[in-house]
Specification:
- The chain is mainly alpha-helical.
- The chain contains 16 helices and no strands.
- Helix 3 crosses helix 9, helix 6 packs antiparallel against helix 16 and helix 11 packs antiparallel against helix 12.
Length: about 400
């Protein structure tokens, strides 16, 4: 990273510190809730519904928070949403019912999506043509490492009491400190919104289906991975390692797959990744629950499933006119949210019908339609001209891709 790049990153380092604390807390909370819901005796389908409410809130927040930013500014929105997210985390321990937890998950999703939008639009305004890609790389690293650290904390925290909820509340509260007490250059604008979902589907059916089903697969991993791991006999500490494995896998393959998709027709890469994800999940159904091979297969699945989001987003941008690239982010948020809500609901129903192994069968099933449609599109159509691959964290608001993509368009 050259001097300009280091200078830009340094100027928003306090923002990255705050974001990192948020991710640690959010990563820990999601896993704790799955384990606690299981121990509290919530039915499988109810757990799926409760966890899916996060993604419903995510969609609402992604589409409404930009107006708040425009009205009161980035710092106030960050502080307000972080305060609400911290209060929400503490409330889980006070009222333990499915309805209450579902409402709290909705609020948490709204807050976190709003915080993603705030951070991403903040970074977008600070970046230049030279620094956007590198700034996004740091952003992705902070998000991924924060979520992984949250899984590690799961192994050293007593999940049976209120301690993990208090710890999450503390982490979220601390995230406000660097953002509000350190002088940060704040942007004057927010991200634009609005592109018809119908237009997205018409322009890139493969990209839209891939975003929807990748959202379903990823949300199922985060929402029900802990439930699956607990039901096959893992202790909380081992569950944390199990959950972290998929994130580590995603970190290792994000850039190589992106590079490959810039040098090989993107549809072929999407097809290959989808088929490999299906095969990995199916092989996992035959592995003993106490086998180290299961952890390796989970890491491989994560290395395929989560980068698919970036591949799908890049493919959508390949086929859109340049003047629509920015506004497409809102449509991607919406379709991603639909898939993310449906994923845990679908996986929980299958698990209720056939047991814990239904989790793995569902993860395989999400990627099979992507592979089939990609093959059909490869056979039926020529490949569109490709823009540069967009490397984006799976759990962002999808405004982040614009950090990289505008490097090409400006």
């Amino acid at each position: 990273m050259n001097g300009e790049g280091r200078g830009i990153v340094s100027s928003v380092s306090a923002l990255f510190v705050g974001l990192g604390l948020l991710m640690v807390g959010n990563g820990l909370l999601g896993s704790v809730l799955g384990i606690r819901a299981e121990s509290e005796g919530f039915p499988t389908v109810v757990i799926g519904a409760v966890m899916a409410m996060y993604y419903a809130g995510f969609v609402v927040g992604s589409l409404t928070i930009p107006r708040w930013i425009f009205a009161v500014g980035h710092i106030r929105v960050f502080a307000g949403l972080a305060a609400l997210a911290g209060a929400t985390a503490l409330t889980y321990a006070l009222v333990i019912t499915p309805f209450t937890w579902g409402a709290l998950r909705f609020l948490a999703g709204l807050c976190l999506s709003g915080l993603y939008v705030t951070v991403e639009s903040w970074l977008n305004a600070r970046a230049t043509n030279v620094t956007r890609g590198r700034l996004l790389s740091v952003y992705m690293l902070v998000v991924t490492l924060g979520l992984t650290a949250g899984q590690v904390l799961l192994g050293v925290t007593d999940v049976s009491g209120s301690t993990p909820f208090i710890l999450v509340g503390v982490l979220i509260a601390l995230s406000v400190v660097p953002v509000t007490l350190v002088r940060l250059p704040t942007p004057d604008t927010t991200i634009p919104v609005a592109l018809s979902v119908r237009d997205l589907v018409r322009s890139s059916p493969l990209g839209v289906i891939a975003v929807v089903l990748t959202g379903a697969a990823g949300s199922s991993v985060f929402a029900l991975g802990t439930v699956y791991a607990t039901r096959i006999g893992m202790t909380p500490g081992v569950v944390g390692t199990f959950m972290a494995a998929s994130l580590v896998g995603a970190t290792l393959t994000q850039y190589p797959l992106g590079w490959l998709s810039d040098h090989v027709p993107r549809r072929r890469v999407i097809f290959g990744v989808a088929i490999a994800a299906v095969a990995t999940a199916l092989i996992s159904t035959t592995v003993a629950p106490d086998s180290l091979l299961l952890f390796l297969l989970v890491a491989i699945y994560g290395s395929l499933a989560f980068p698919m989001y970036s591949l799908a987003t890049s493919h959508i941008n390949d086929v859109l006119p340049r003047h629509q690239l920015v506004s497409a982010a809102a449509g991607i948020v919406f379709i991603y949210g639909l898939g993310s809500v449906a994923g845990p609901l679908t996986a929980s129903i299958v698990m209720a019908l056939i047991g814990p192994v239904g989790y793995l069968w569902t993860l395989a099933g999400f990627f099979l339609p992507i592979a089939i449609l990609a093959l059909i599109r490869i056979v039926a159509k020529t490949h569109p001209a490709q823009r540069r691959f967009i490397n984006v964290p799976y759990r962002s608001s999808t405004a982040a891709p614009l950090l990289a993509d505008r490097t090409d368009s400006e």
